[in-house]
Amino acid sequence: MERTMVGKTPETLPDPVQNLACAVFALMDADGSGKVGKAEFEQYLKARNTSSAGAVEEFAKLDCDGDGTLVRDDIDKAIFRFFTAPEPDCPQQWLRAFFTA
Ligand SMILES: [Ca+2]
User: Fold this and answer.
1) 43 CA to middle of ligand 1, Å?
2) What digits encode the pLDDT tens for the residues 49-90?
């Protein structure tokens, strides 16, 4: 996927990318509460055979407002960052886990 395919802002992700975000979030949100706590995030990684310390630390980077839970907006922003941000510490193991397990 190329950078141009994710749109110009996290709020305007194209439908296929929104569908990806929705699918990843649904897997993380085990209890269907609309929020993903750290325990759910770790459970998701474990279920996808991704359990490195770095992967668990990604939760804090994904939690944009630092409230201790992830919402769909956090995942939209993270996916947008994944495809557009040049920084090497861009959280990505959580997203790779979706495709590899
Ligand atoms: Ca939840």
Assistant:
1) 11
2) 887 778 888 899 899 889 999 999 999 998 888 888 766 667
How many domains would you assign to the chain?
A: 1
Q: What are phi and psi of 31, to 5 degrees?
A: -95, 5
CB 17 within 8 A of CB 79: yes
Residues in the chain, overall count: 101
Q: How far is the CA of 30 from the centre of ligand 1 (A)?
A: 6
Q: How far, in Å, is the centroid of ligand 1 from the Cα of 32?
A: 5
Domain at 31, CATH number: 1.10.238.10
pTM for this prediction: 0.83
Would 18 be classed as within a structural domain? yes
Q: Residue 2: inside a domain, yes or no?
A: no
Give the confidence band of 101 by pLDDT, cuts at 50, 70, 90.
low
